[in-house]
Amino acid sequence: MLRGFKNFLMRGDVIVVAVGLVTALAFSTLIKAFTDSVINPVIARLQGGKSVGLGWQLGDQGNTSTYLNIGSFISALIYFVIFMAVIYFLIVVPYKYTQRRRGAEVFGEPGPLKTCPECLAEDIPEAARKCRYCGSDQPRTSEPPRTA
């Protein structure tokens, strides 16, 4: 039973992605609570006075629909950075380590690139036989590019 569970966790398919998504959503709730309970009050306090947040009132005083809340935007930005760091360090890094131990490289550096002589696209893989954008035949890497 544990061997089957281990094999389930080590597979690199849609099921593992689904498990990662559920984990990410759980961390999302935790990080949202942190930004709402800790970051937002700090940002609101930076405004000073009796302000409801860091921002400006664009219309009538007290109308929340015309309040430009910069504090909420900063909070959302902090939330995004923390969330992506959690995803990277708790999901991507262990996945890369596990796949590397199995002999597969994921999220690695891209291979060498070349420029298409026809459409001048600069992101064609060096081993490509045809351009992904214009469909022209690509010279072999040992051949110099043909000139018109």
Automatic annotation (TrEMBL):
Is the keyword Transmembrane assigned to this protein?
Answer: yes
Gene3D superfamilies, A to Z: Large-conductance mechanosensitive channel, MscL, domain 1 (1.10.1200.120)
Instruction: List the coiled-coil residues.
Output: none
Q: Does the keyword Membrane apply?
A: yes
Q: How does it sit in the membrane?
A: Multi-pass membrane protein
- Give the main localization category: membrane
Protein name, as recorded: Large conductance mechanosensitive channel protein MscL
* Source organism (scientific name): Streptomyces rhizosphaericus
What is this protein's gene name?
A: mscL_1
